[in-house]
Design a protein that fits this description.
The chain folds into 3 domains: 9-126, Probable tRNA modification gtpase trme, domain 1 (Gyrase A, domain 2); 139-217; 219-376, P-loop containing nucleotide triphosphate hydrolases (Rossmann fold). The chain has helices at residues 31-38, 94-106, 116-123, 129-140, 144-154, 157-181, 189-218, 232-240, 284-299, 315-324, 364-376, and strands at 9-12, 21-27, 39-41, 53-58, 65-74, 85-91, 110-111, 220-225, 258-264, 267-273, 302-308, 329-335, 352-355. With 393 residues, the protein is α/β, with parallel strands linked by helices. The relative contact order is 0.10. The chain contains 11 helices and 13 strands. The two termini are 28 Å apart. The strands form 2 sheets. It has a 7-stranded mixed β-sheet with strand order 3-4-5-6-2-1-7. Strands 9-10-8-11-12-13 form a 6-stranded mixed β-sheet, with helices on both faces.
Length: 393
């Protein structure tokens, strides 16, 4: 569907739900006339641009007062969309905002499509494509690090760096063309070579930042797997700092997958607690839980293999360790280290290994650090100038 960019659009720009304030936003050439048709303010909006004006929204058809509001007129081009805009601050809650929006639509505006205000900002040259993507990232940010990364991109840091790289390449190209067009004999080849190497190094640095930047934005999925009764749910609760999963000495208590997230140094980590995997004959309900565990493992970035350090390894432990190899990375947590340990070989010798106690909290910081290092694959957190999407990379 092709969207017009020269008509007037309207939408509720705040989240749906109860709250103190909701905002109805208009953008386009008729924003001011539409707003003035439904507003009764002490000061005319056009006479007080960029100032909040107290008034009431009135239904022109019935003269019914819909709400008491604060409205502001933002004349082009110094607006988000570079068009005339009006923002009407109504009382929070869905009803008032929807009634005011309906009046705006009745006066000739069109309901904005999702992201259309940002689309107009992009099409009118207010922001570039990387900044438009940053708006989305900022709205969806789940951690402070993700928000900082999005704000840096919204400020144009990435675009500015790309422009500098482009300008350096254009300078090299111009110098090479000069040698052809004007038969210039002396070209500082080493200088051109250094300029190209500088751009190449910057490009490599940006590309290397793409994976970790996307991890900060999207998060890392960690499947907690192990045989029944090794303390997977207890470990999840300890990592979360709350009793999210039911804990019982009865094997097979966890039948369904449970997802919860925390942030480790700004990186969102989504833990998936799974049903215990066993080689013994299971009933239909247990089999369904085990199948879900295997699916969760297939979708995970990291398999957190939980083992009981107080007991000898079992065939089930070895079977689960073999399944864990399907994940890109494996981290082993030897749980119950507060109990006397049994000497045993590692079922996954190449995996990172941490001794923890879900009961006392011992080793939890080390486990979080191991998970973060596994997620970043040995790289540090990226600078605020980073590639954050597959399109950019």
């Amino acid at each position: 569907m092709t969207l017009a960019v020269d008509d007037t659009i309207a939408a509720i720009s705040t989240a749906v739900g109860n709250g103190a304030i909701a905002i109805v936003r208009l953008s386009g050439p008729h924003s001011l006339p539409i707003a003035e048709a439904i507003l009764r303010t002490r000061r005319k909006l056009r006479r007080a641009p960029r100032s909040l004006c107290y008034g009431r929204v009135v239904d022109p058809a019935s003269s019914e007062v819909v709400d008491e509001v604060l409205a502001v007129y933002l004349p082009a081009p110094r607006t988000y969309t570079r068009q005339d805009m009006v923002e009407i601050n109504v009382h929070g809650g869905a009803l008032s905002a929807r009634r005011v929006l309906a009046l705006c639509l009745r006066q000739g505006s069109r309901l904005a499509q999702p992201g259309e205000f940002t689309l107009r900002a992009f099409l009118n040259g207010r922001i570039d494509l990387t900044q438009a993507e940053a708006v989305r990232d900022l709205v969806e940010a789940r951690t402070v690090a993700a928000a900082r990364q999005a704000l840096a991109q919204l400020d144009g840091n990435l675009a500015a760096r790309l422009r500098r790289m482009r300008q350096r390449l254009l300078s090299v190209l111009a110098a090479l063309e000069a040698t052809i067009d004007f038969d210039v004999e002396e070209v500082e080849r080493e200088s051109l070579r250094q300029s190209l190497l500088m751009v190449l190094d910057e490009a490599k640095e940006l590309l290397s930042s793409a994976r970790t930047a996307q991890l900060i934005r999207q998060g890392v999925r960690v499947a907690i797997i192990g045989r029944p009764n090794v303390g997977k749910s207890s470990l999840l609760n300890a990592l979360l700092g709350s009793d999210r999963a039911i804990v019982s000495p009865v094997p097979g208590t966890t039948r369904d997958t449970i997802e919860e997230a925390i942030a480790i140094q700004g990186v969102p980590i989504v833990f998936v607690d799974t049903a215990g995997i066993t080689g013994r004959k299971a009933d239909a309900l247990e089999r369904a839980g085990i199948e879900r565990s295997q699916r969760a493992l297939g979708q995970a970035d990291i398999a957190l293999l939980v083992l009981d350090s107080s007991q000898p390894l079992t065939d089930d432990d070895r079977a689960v360790a073999a399944l864990a190899q399907a994940a890109p990375t494996v981290v082993m947590a030897w749980n119950k280290c507060d109990l006397p340990s049994v000497a045993q070989d590692s079922p996954a010798p190449h995996a990172r290994s941490v001794r923890v106690s879900a009961l006392t909290g011992e080793g939890l910081d080390e486990l979080q650090q191991a998970l973060l290092e596994a997620a970043l694959d040995g790289q540090g957190l990226p600078s605020e100038v980073a590639l954050t999407s597959e399109r950019q990379a």
